[in-house]
Amino acid sequence: MTKPFTDPRTLLRPLALLALGKTGADIERLLRDVRRTARRSSRGITWRDLEAGLRDGQAPMSADLRRRAAIHEAGHALVYTLTGIAEVQSASIALHGVGLVTTVPNAHLPETEAWLMNNIASLLAGRAAEILVFHEPIAGAGGADESDLARATAMALAAETSLGFSKQQPLRYRSVAMGMHELTMDRGLADRVNRRLQCAEAMAHDLIQANRLALDEIASGLESVGILSGDEVRRIVRGSVDDNEKGEP
């Protein structure tokens, strides 16, 4: 029986996705190591050799953590795509720490208050997805200055202190450093920042709940192969949106 033709680009795409974030020097070093290993075994390089090399150094994940990481990253990818704030390049788990969604901001969008809130919602979407599915989050959204919670808090604080979006004294500018200091001293400011964060998380929750099938499909793909391209994410989201529109009365 004749086998159907497979585009070589389709075969190579999984390896290309696994190589995201690596430099040219990293790839050269990996190929040298793979060639050396294959030569010692008196054989040619195989696909499995390349995949193993690209996955080298990844810490193993339990089934439960893998599922949680998949849901978390699927939440980010879904809300970034639905809001249009940024274009997803890839979503992955067990490649760069626990998980990662790489994006390119849509620079043509006006940086309004709605734009800012969509950005915060996208940052909090991983945590929101965990709460929706597991009814509680793990600590992965916080714990570091570059974490989802830290970045979301910085954006909400900027809205209240330096971007002119506050309902109280919107024209009064305060630097980021001053704002961070005031956040610990000013109860009113802390409450306003927290309300923004809660509002953004609710936005993310509602978007995810309305597109739960897309969340589950993205997460299943991540659980299965560890990584999805931005095109795959967008295909899943478009299918979900189309199905939702067909179901409307």
What would you note in describing this structure?
With 249 residues, this protein is mostly helical. It folds into two domains: 10-55; 63-247, Methane Monooxygenase Hydroxylase, Chain G, domain 1 (Up-down Bundle), CATH 1.20.58.760. Helix content is 64%, strand content 7%. The chain has ten helices and three strands. It has helices spanning 8-18, 24-40, 47-55, 63-83, 113-134, 148-161, 176-185, 187-210, 212-225, 230-247, and strands spanning 86-93, 99-105, 227-229. A three-stranded antiparallel β-sheet has the order 2-1-3, with helices on both faces. Strand 1 and strand 2 (99-105) form a beta hairpin. The longest helix is centred in the last third of the chain and has 24 residues, at 187-210. The protein is globular. The termini are far apart. The model is unreliable at 1-7 (pLDDT under 50).
- Structure summary, number of beta strands: 3
Oligomerization: single chain
Percentage beta strand:
5-15%
Largest sheet: 3 strands, antiparallel
CATH class of the largest domain: Mainly Alpha
Average pLDDT metric: 87
- Which stretches are low in confidence, meaning pLDDT under 50 for 5 or more residues running? 1-7
